[in-house]
């Protein structure tokens, strides 16, 4: 387990806040009850930041023909829908909701060539809102494998997530299970898969990034 680089600034701010409130309490000689409350609050803040930005080590053996889960969380959508940004046809959508307690590293579901990338500024509706996939701040990434099969996946900001980070661009070669981005706080990742894909998860399942097999071509 390691601390993710995206959390360095947040951790520094948290430590500064903890130092200030404890210094103020000592300066004004606060009562023991107040001091213990501040100690508990400080510990909660520190632990929350550390657990949110934790980044478990992953050892992934890429598997041709499989789609790995891009994020930790819970499956909230499995449906056939129209994808109108890139494919302009019917696809199977699988959506994963990431709560604040989940690991928020995002990982490539397949290996291949990034054929499309776009960042969209937008709103910050709750991640499970029906229009969050089209109205919220988000990125769209499409990767084509060596067989010519393409998977589209989106990072979608939630009501608390105000910053999406990505590490890929068009024409990059990516490896299944490696990091492609990070979303701060509650958020969602959508996958759009070809019709006929064998889906291996159900709504409500808890899934793990780079470990759970979402489906097979």
From TrEMBL:
Catalyzes the formation of phosphatidylethanolamine (PtdEtn) from phosphatidylserine (PtdSer). GO terms for cellular component: plasma membrane. Heterodimer of a large membrane-associated beta subunit and a small pyruvoyl-containing alpha subunit. It holds the Pfam family PS_Dcarbxylase. It catalyses: a 1,2-diacyl-sn-glycero-3-phospho-L-serine + H(+) = a 1,2-diacyl-sn-glycero-3-phosphoethanolamine + CO2. InterPro entries: PS_Dcarbxylase, PSD-A. The chain crosses the membrane at residues 7-24, 36-53. The active site is at 187 (schiff-base intermediate with substrate). One of its GO terms (biological process) is phosphatidylethanolamine biosynthetic process. This is Phosphatidylserine decarboxylase proenzyme. It is an enzyme of class 4 (lyase). Keywords: Cell membrane, Decarboxylase, Lipid biosynthesis, Lipid metabolism, Lyase, Membrane, Phospholipid biosynthesis, Phospholipid metabolism, Pyruvate, Transmembrane, Transmembrane helix, Zymogen. It is a peripheral membrane protein. Pathway: Phospholipid metabolism; phosphatidylethanolamine biosynthesis; phosphatidylethanolamine from CDP-diacylglycerol: step 2/2. Its EC number is 4.1.1.65.
């Amino acid at each position: 387990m390691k601390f993710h680089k995206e959390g360095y600034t947040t951790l520094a701010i948290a430590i500064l806040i903890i130092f200030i409130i404890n210094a103020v309490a000592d300066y004004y000689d606060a009562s023991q009850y107040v001091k213990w409350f501040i100690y508990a609050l400080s510990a909660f803040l520190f632990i929350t930041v550390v657990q949110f930005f934790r980044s478990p080590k992953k050892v992934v053996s890429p598997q041709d023909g499989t789609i790995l889960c891009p994020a930790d969380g819970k499956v909230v959508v499995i449906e056939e829908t129209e994808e109108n940004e890139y494919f302009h046809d019917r696809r199977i959508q699988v959506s994963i909701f990431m709560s604040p307690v989940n690991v928020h590293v995002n990982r490539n579901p397949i290996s291949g060539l990034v054929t499309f990338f776009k960042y969209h500024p937008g709103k910050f509706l709750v991640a499970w809102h029906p229009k969050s996939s089209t109205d919220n701040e988000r990125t769209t990434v499409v990767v084509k494998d060596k067989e010519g099969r393409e998977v589209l996946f989106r990072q979608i900001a939630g009501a608390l997530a105000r910053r999406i980070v990505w590490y890929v661009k068009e024409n990059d070669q990516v490896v299944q299970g490696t990091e492609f981005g990070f979303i701060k706080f509650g958020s969602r990742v959508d996958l759009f898969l070809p019709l006929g894909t064998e889906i291996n998860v159900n709504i409500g399942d808890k899934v793990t990034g780079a470990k759970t097999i979402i489906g097979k071509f």
